[in-house]
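Reply to dn_fold:

You asked what the input looked like. This is it:
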Amino acid sequence: MNDDNLPAHCTGTRHMTASRSILAPALSATLPGTWQLQSRIDVTATGERLAEPSLGADPVALLIYDRSGHFAAQFMRRDRSVVIPDGPGGAKNNSRAQGGYDAYFGTYAIDDEKGTVTQTLLAALSPENVGHVLTRAMEVQGDTLVIRLETTAGDGTAVTRTLTWQRVG
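and this is what came back:
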């Protein structure tokens, strides 16, 4: 079966299995909604897990993508009762938290073929992040969104960050 034989509502990306191809829904069809953070994990190239000090190992976060191409993200350190160090300035492909909080919003574009989302920050808590363009690899399976990005830890160590989200709206 080729894509030309599919009904108009069956848009998606073809994934191959050992026995047959399966048409998975396109990211552009599955991403819009409201997402609550389940985990945020940074791992070095050697497999060492690093805790990011400004937001902590278990932050609270909400991520919203609407169908018109706008998004908003907010992250907060779960315990803000102590003095929180600001996140690293100039981290590769990432924004900077202040006082245990990070927030930004803007527009986004999806590349269904690559499984990526490119976000343009129209506003951000940290002034140096306004106007940044951030690209993320994303995958939605059911009500779970997984985002992967390459960034740097506070000491400059390269890390792969994996954020797992649960759909809440």
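Residues 28-167 form a domain with the Lipocalin fold (CATH 2.40.128.280).
Hope that clears it up.
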